[in-house]
Design a protein that fits this description.
- It is a single chain.
- By secondary structure, the chain is an all-alpha fold.
- Helix content is 60%, strand content 0%.
- The chain is built from five helices and no strands.
Length: 164
């Protein structure tokens, strides 16, 4: 097995799986290799591949993940005396991503409510970015890509919460 640092989103390679099998997979009769999952349209990282969880099949989850990745350099660029704002931005972006995942895993009875809560986290992240802009800590061009993703995610969450 490879011994480099892996992301929790890494999928095992066929060689990883073969190393962990208690038998020779080639000798098992009538076994077929699983088909590869579809490629995501946007990811935030080139190595992202959808996995077995419900949220990994949602475009909203991929957009939330991309917003998290996009917002991190902004949080890192905030001055040390604005550590609270940077922390709030990070928490809101993470909460939005986790909220989408949680909503996707819920039953119909509270799924819409969970998507609505994730939308609240999206609003918090956008407000943190706006606060950084209002305080003159960032340029609009630095936050525009993240704001665009958050706007797109918010619209998706409105539709998802209405359908649930």
């Amino acid at each position: 097995m490879r011994h480099h640092s892996k992301s929790p989103f890494d999928q095992p390679t066929p060689s990883d799986l073969a190393e962990n099998m208690p038998f020779d997979a080639a000798t098992v009769p009538n076994e077929t290799a699983p088909s590869a999952p579809p490629e995501p349209r946007s990811s935030g990282h080139e190595d992202y591949r959808p996995g077995p969880y419900d949220h990994e099949r949602l475009e909203a989850y991929r957009v939330a993940r991309e917003a998290l990745v996009s917002g991190e350099p902004v949080a890192r660029a905030l001055p040390p005396e604005q550590a609270g704002l940077a922390s709030e931005l990070r928490r809101a972006l993470v909460a939005a991503q986790l909220g989408v995942a949680q909503a996707a895993a819920r039953g119909c009875s509270d799924r819409g409510e969970r998507f609505g809560a994730a939308r609240g986290d999206v609003a918090r992240a956008a407000a943190a970015l706006d606060g950084a802009l209002a305080l003159g800590l960032v340029e609009r061009s630095a936050i525009e890509p993240t704001l665009t993703l958050l706007g797109r995610l918010s619209a998706m969450l409105v539709r998802l919460s209405a359908r649930s």
